[in-house]
Amino acid sequence: MAIVTDVFKHGKRVVGYGFNSNGRYAPSGMLHERFIPRLLEAETNDILDDEKLNFDPHKIWDILMTGEKPGGHGERSVAVGTLDMAVWDAVAKIEEKPLYQLLAERYGNGKPDDKVFVYAAGGYYQPGKDDKMLQEEMKGYLDLGYSVVKMKIGNGLEEDLRRIEAVLEVVPSGQSLAVDVNGRFDLKTAIRYAEKLEPYNLFWYEEVGDPLDYELQAELSKHYKNPMATGENLFSLQDARNLIRYGGMRPDRIICNLTVH
Fold this sequence. Notes:
Blueprint: E1 2-9, E2 12-17, H1 28-41, H2 44-47, H3 57-64, H4 73-95, H5 99-107, E3 120-121, H6 131-143, E4 149-152, H7 157-168, E5 177-180, H8 187-197, E6 204-206, H9 214-220, E7 228-230, H10 237-246, E8 254-256
Parallel strand pairs: 3-4, 4-5, 5-6, 6-7, 7-8
Antiparallel strand pairs: 1-2
Helix pairs in contact: 1-4, 3-4, 6-7, 8-9
């Protein structure tokens, strides 16, 4: 997504860019039929900040959401979120600051974090991919400098335990390995896996059940003492709030992996 502005900096037109999340596809219909026309039809003063020196992302957000009903956050959030990213990118370029610095000044103490934790996500199931190939993949991430790697599980307990143990042979410890279920389990399966995973002391056990099944998450937290991660597939402030209210969240061992628009 590119938002082409009429602002020039150092002889170059300012263009804001946004990139949509994988796993949520084809927002183009909503963009072209609803959100882009609303933005293009807005009056200039309605999208500028009070000083008329830059765009106001919050005013633009309100314009994009005009007439939208509450709920239905999933696909819509990607369409609006991509536009929102492009707007913020343009705003930062107009102010001639990195976006992280702009956000730190507006919403923090002006000092952005100088370090950000990252991990390498992979370990997908693929035809013909054996444990040796999985080990080589994970070793490759460590060689690139990552301290934590993540793999997919959920294809069967015996197979997954074998794959996890194979990876644990090549990473420093269980704290170097996270596992991700992608929301496949019911509560019974989630607990059965939890009992087997706990001795490995993994970095986290992620997205175990349906993202809106807060009761499952809350009950699972009673059966698994090690860190869990969830929230990746929540796409609204309201869903995130309900996760915190009803999902048995504990700050000592549950990580909010949120993607909220």
